[in-house]
Design brief:
2 domains
């Protein structure tokens, strides 16, 4: 069974969501629901640990394919992947 919630957003925020929903052929409600469901703060801790481990395992591959996206060593505590 689904539950309803009511939120208030700025008019500009709603308009952006409405435009995006129309472009994607969906509804504002569907976009907001998708965003809430993807929020990592609402995930179970085990899934967050699995995601962090996956990211750690693939860090070198990411760095090789996207060198311009690599953070400076000082931001990652000086550790190399």
């Amino acid at each position: 069974m689904s539950k309803s919630i009511t939120i208030r957003v700025a008019e500009e925020t709603y308009e952006r969501y409405a435009e995006r929903a129309k472009a994607e052929g969906t509804t504002v409600t569907a976009l907001v629901t998708e965003a809430v469901e993807r929020d990592p703060r609402l995930s179970d801790p085990a899934s967050l640990l699995r995601a962090a481990e996956w990211a750690r395992q693939h860090a070198a591959e990411f760095a090789a394919h996207f060198p311009d996206e690599e953070p400076p060593a000082s931001r990652s505590g000086g550790r190399a992947a």
